[in-house]
Amino acid sequence: MTTAPVADQLRLLEVQALDTRASQIAHQRRTHPAHAAATELASQLADLESALVTSRTAAGDLRRELAKAEADVEQVRTRAQRDRARLDSAAVSAKDAQALTSELEALARRQAALEEIELEVMERLEAHESALADVTRARDEMLEKQQWAARQLEEALAELDAQAAELAVEREKRAVGLDAGLVALYDRLRGQLGGLGVAALRGRRCEGCRLELNPSDVAQLNAAAPEQVVRCEECGRILVRNAEAVRPADAAR
Length: 253
Known about the structure:
mainly alpha; rod-shaped; 2 domains
């Protein structure tokens, strides 16, 4: 049967209070609202980054399409200039002059059609570059918001980490010298019972499970030797008698 000095049992309640607070801080760290805000903004930023890549790719395709259209127009224009120069040179026969005239007419029609294509691509590119500018601006604004949210989260977590570090130091001080068997039992029960391994017995109530114990069970617990480590019949946690020696303000610190 486990025994431990009464002072160690009382001090174990202080250790439990510190462990509980550390668990609360860890929970706050995991569930801090800044996590959700940062995650949402990061998701929106990723969507905008993806849209920006798509938009840049489309703009690049249109620029290449425009360059090809301009090259096609220039090629026809050059051919027409060359034919016109031959026609104006008076060094061609009547038959060749007729052929050149026909070709110039065909080239004019071809150039007009290609210039229509060029204009249409230019208009599409202009509209797309305007949309690209809007997406870029939205991405930059979202990046600024996301970075701000990330800083807020970092600051919040740093504050919680500082609190946890202080608790760890205090916990180590409170746990120094505690009965090894008592600590081993406490650690095992904490792992099994949701982080709460020891509780005070106040009157007939176990402060761990918050249940009222049978009078006969309470009498039997109180009749046990002070050094005997007793446990709740309902939840199995270590019960510390005479816990009034530990003030609530101490346990909550």
